[in-house]
Design goal:
The structure is a homotetramer. Chain A is of the alpha+beta class. The first copy, chain A, is built from three helices and four strands; from the N terminus they run βαββαβα. Chain A has helices spanning 18-31, 49-65, 87-100; strands spanning 3-11, 34-37, 42-46, 70-80. In chain A, strands 2-3-1-4 form a four-stranded antiparallel β-sheet, covered by helices on one side. In chain A, a hairpin with a 4-residue loop joins strand 2 and strand 3 (42-46). Chain A is globular, with a radius of gyration of 15 Å. At the B-D interface, strand 4 of B face strand 4 of D.
Chain lengths: 101, 101, 101, 101
């Protein structure tokens, strides 16, 4: 099955966040994680909640390695087990219904 | 200036949400709001927090009109006033920095 | 009816947030809003979503008046219309069920 | 050090959530985790992010064992490493500053 997880890592004390998000993107690329960057978050598709937590924990720890003293990380998990679906399917399903009506 | 707001409207008591998100998309289209649909949320770009709240309140109320009894709505506002930027700029800035390093 | 809304206002660029939360608490006291401060957020009980939005917008704007340049505000609304309930009722209901089993 | 984590586990398809939150409370009690129940969430204080994730994953999985088909879990971590502080300290610090002004 696949789990879709959105996360936002905010290093407190910093005004510009793009440098930090860029480091997270590099981490996801290096690990070969399926992800989508949005203007407000990063969304990953993984095979289990624990796999997702492992990746996000690594990204969260990365901030401290970059010198940040306080990190606020928000995570939202969408875990549906009665049917298999991917990130793209969710958007497709909405757009199909929006066009019907 | 522009404010970027992410929101998620969850009708409790429902297993499939795409029908409801589709109604929100139709509302945004009708109102001519600049938006982006992601696998986990809807992101809008508006000129002020109050304009954003007005739109989200309308979308939230729509759920009750569709027969829902309980609605959980999550909103995240990114309001930066020292420089003007758009939804696309945020992603572009991250990707440029990710390629540098 | 009553709507319960949790919110968190984070001034980016600041390491310590308590000074800012204190200003929000003072605003809520002055306006006579029913609220509860938790270690992670502020929760208010209001009569409608629009009343809640008005209060949170005022608190959000307050940050810029205090000199902050970028504000990230997160809001979560729990709006149930099939029965009236208050903040205390939600906790009571959980604790009763936890003791039964 | 201690990490403070807020989480909300929402079983989709259910209108009343208190029964599910009660099961999470029982789990936290059984495991001896320091926690606070609020009208909108559960807040735990743990010694590391990975300890927190382990507990939340167990609570998230519990929902599926109770027959839920889709679970939406939201987590917010406040991880500050330049000084040690507890859940109570955060509220105390805000209230002190609110009384000063």
């Amino acid at each position: 099955m696949s789990v879709i997880i959105e996360f936002v890592i905010v290093p407190l004390g910093e005004l510009s966040l793009s440098r930090y998000v860029a480091e997270v993107v590099k981490l996801l690329e290096k690990k070969g994680v399926k992800y989508q960057l949005t203007p407000m978050s990063t969304i990953i598709e993984v095979s289990s909640v624990s796999e997702g937590f492992k990746i996000i924990e690594e990204a969260h720890e990365l901030m401290f390695k970059l010198g940040v003293k306080r990190v606020s990380t928000t995570i939202r998990i969408d875990d549906r087990r009665d049917k298999r679906r991917h990130m793209e399917d969710k958007i497709k399903s909405v757009l199909e219904k929006a066009q019907e009506g």
